[in-house]
TrEMBL record:
Upper lineage: Bacteria, Candidatus Amesiibacteriota
Domain of life (superkingdom): Bacteria
Localization in the cell: Endomembrane system
Topology relative to the membrane: Multi-pass membrane protein
A Pfam family annotated for this UniProt entry: H_PPase
Name used for this protein in its record: V-type H(+)-translocating pyrophosphatase
Keywords, in A-Z order: Ion transport, Magnesium, Membrane, Translocase, Transmembrane, Transmembrane helix, Transport
Main location per the UniProt record: membrane
GO molecular function: diphosphate hydrolysis-driven proton transmembrane transporter activity; inorganic diphosphate phosphatase activity
A Gene Ontology cellular-component term: endomembrane system
TM helices/strands, residue ranges: 37-57, 63-88, 147-165, 171-189, 201-223, 229-246, 285-307, 367-385, 391-414, 467-486, 492-514, 561-578
Amino acid sequence: YFGMWIAVRANIRTAKNAVIGLNPALKMAFSAGTVNGMLLVGLGLFGVSLIYMWAYFSFISQGAAVVASQATTVLVGYGFGAALLALFMRVGGGIFTKAADVGADLVGKVEAGIPEDDPRNPATIADNVGDNVGDCAGMSADVFESYALTIVAAMILGGTMFGLKGVVFPLLARSGAILTSILGTFFVSARSEKENPIRPLIRGFVVSAVAAIIIFMGLAIFLLGEPRAGYAAVSGIISMLALLYVTKYYTGPGEKPVVSIAQASKTGAGTNLITGLSVGMESTFISVLIIVATIFAGYLFLGFYGISLAGMGMLATTGIIMALDTFGPIADNAQGMVEMANLKGQAPTVTASLDAVGNTTKALTKGFAVGSAAVAASSLFATYFEATGLTAIDIALPKVFIGLLIGGALPYLFSSRLIGSVGKAAFQVVEEVRRQFKTIPGIMEGKALPDYSKAVSIVTSAAQKELVIPAAIVISAPVLVGILGAQTLGGFLAGVVASGLMLALFMCNTGGAWDNAKKYIEDGHLGGKGSETHKAAVVGDTVGDPLKDTAGPALNPMMKIVQIVALLIAPLVIQLFGK
């Protein structure tokens, strides 16, 4: 709620400041994003801290072990609430934003030949609203969930290894990380009007990451007396930086893979799609290697607790990461407002450069969200062993292998429902836009206004209806598989993480690469806007939209919610169906 509330007020101010120059517009967009980022980490830590304080003051007389046990029991419920909301926001928000975007692009750009954000397009307002619904509300809920769940996993496993100190360590580490994110924001300022806006954003992020490393190591040495805890957390920070770099390489404008997709568009949409799929698959392999290295390093340093600390490290700079993510839709909407208002002077150039950077930051934060979700899910997988008393699962058992296969297939079923929902809703939007072009005279000449509310109503209704079945599938699947026993459920959880991680990375990176290949052509390369090459790239971008903004991001909460449902039902599964 706060993320959207802030974004819709900041975008018009950013557009206004763009008339003055780059730095005022950059500072406005980033400052608004910072408020959202700090609210997210502050509220996440506040909720966990309240639960810990309740447990401490209620049970301290019975000993530190009881405090840790009571706190972690309630924290599982807290994590489930965050996971459930994230699932609804990602699914509903993703369907809303991409149905509007695809519908607006297909009729506006391809059929009518009018620019993006043109006020003559009846779906343009729904498209702009969708930017906030998907990239502010959806992303905030998703990262909040990972943020909360990594603390929950670290407190549960830390309490087992280090007692009360192990429970307190994640809280203090998170508090210090918030301060490092705030520190990083002071370094976000353009040194000149000609500086690329991405540079000050990267400066702030790097300062925040370095300061977080110092905080984690200091607390590990002086509070826990165990430097390996710091090493595990630092491995998470390093892997996050590596993931961001890989995402930038495979999806960034002007990068070699993106240019290769643009080049392939010269021979039509088919070769554009084939090259994009190839790039997405390669990026998935490299990204998975980084996440595997993170999990292995965490386990090497401190076992399952080390994995949970690596997850905390990946999320150490969440405050500034979310500021970068919210910057994207604010800059995008500001660009749309400048275009719709037909502002002259330097405003169009300033907002265009901010929008280009915003697209890059959104792509980077998607890679971050997928990686952190995978490590958070791995941490919860470790807590599942803790809850069931299992020390291992035997994959040679047929029922365990069955669970693994069902878990691997579930993300595909889930994704198919979401992509199909976007297709159905986009079809309705396309039909409505075509109807208005035919029946309302004077729209194309700018003499009459379209009925913008109709497209908004269509995508809102579709988002609400279509999220029910995917959510029901995800919540019920672990319960049904649990009938086959705790080991089978463990195999199912492993399958969900393995398949969901790779599918999410593939979808997000492929869609991002197709998007920036189209933008590369729109910048004047290979024939520019309106050329046959551009039309082929628009097809690739349209196919990639529901992948990178609906199905791919929605797999993040999906991976985590099956883990936490399994954690909640674990005692019952052991009691009724055994190991």
